[in-house]
Automatic annotation (TrEMBL):
<keyword id="KW-0708">Seed storage protein</keyword>
<keyword id="KW-0758">Storage protein</keyword>
<feature type="domain" description="Cupin type-1">
    <location>
        <begin position="2"/>
        <end position="117"/>
    </location>
</feature>
<keyword id="KW-1015">Disulfide bond</keyword>
<dbReference type="InterPro" id="IPR011051">
    <property type="entry name" value="RmlC_Cupin_sf"/>
</dbReference>
<dbReference type="InterPro" id="IPR050253">
    <property type="entry name" value="Seed_Storage-Functional"/>
</dbReference>
<dbReference type="Pfam" id="PF00190">
    <property type="entry name" value="Cupin_1"/>
</dbReference>
<dbReference type="InterPro" id="IPR014710">
    <property type="entry name" value="RmlC-like_jellyroll"/>
</dbReference>
<protein>
    <recommendedName>
        <fullName>Cupin type-1 domain-containing protein</fullName>
    </recommendedName>
</protein>
<feature type="signal peptide">
    <location>
        <begin position="1"/>
        <end position="15"/>
    </location>
</feature>
<dbReference type="GO" id="GO:0045735">
    <property type="term" value="F:nutrient reservoir activity"/>
</dbReference>
<dbReference type="InterPro" id="IPR006044">
    <property type="entry name" value="11S_seedstore_pln"/>
</dbReference>
<comment type="similarity">
    <text>Belongs to the 11S seed storage protein (globulins) family.</text>
</comment>
<keyword id="KW-0732">Signal</keyword>
<dbReference type="InterPro" id="IPR006045">
    <property type="entry name" value="Cupin_1"/>
</dbReference>
Length: 169
């Protein structure tokens, strides 16, 4: 059995890395465009591609993938070769980060205990997980600025997330 899912990503929407443990996935771009990054389970970059209308990308099971929609959004169909795919998420209420010891998170992101504690508490209240880039991250000229809400950084560009997330694998 197979599962097919249609999703529409708004302009510049960004997904955190995620993967399926028991299903390969085929992504088909019906409209718009997206930047898709896939890494080997070992953490090395397997692909960093721009998808446009009509393009397909195959992602094997256990390969983390991250998607950033283009300026006109990304209307995609995802086909998985398992009728009960098991997803692993880097964010959200079932995030793998919630199972990590705080010292592992602090080391992975080079953050203080206070920053980790605040991010973890906020994620519990909001049922989401904030992704924090490493302090030494540098931004490519094409990447967006850090989104700021008051004095708190609440979002970053795809390259910062990639640097932080992929360094953990």
């Amino acid at each position: 059995m197979h599962v097919m899912v249609g999703l529409f990503f708004l302009q510049d929407a960004l997904t955190a890395p995620g993967w399926f443990t028991n299903a390969d996935q085929l992504m088909y771009c019906a409209e718009g465009s997206a930047r898709v990054q896939v890494v080997w389970p070992s953490g090395e970059m397997a692909g960093d591609v721009e998808m446009n209308e009509g393009d397909s990308v195959m992602v094997p099971k256990n390969y983390p993938v991250m998607i950033q929609a283009g300026r006109n959004g990304f209307n995609a169909t995802f086909v998985m070769n398992n009728d009960k795919p098991i997803a692993m998420h880097m964010t959200g209420s079932d995030s793998v980060f919630k199972a990590m010891h705080p010292r592992v998170r602090m080391g992975a992101f080079d953050i203080t205990e206070e920053v980790d504690r605040r991010a973890y508490e906020q994620s519990r209240r909001a049922k989401t997980t904030y992704l924090l880039p490493p302090r030494s991250a540098t931004r490519r000229e094409s990447e967006s600025e850090v989104v700021v809400d008051g004095a708190n950084n609440i979002g970053v560009g795809m390259d910062e997330i990639q640097a932080a997330m992929w360094s953990m694998f």
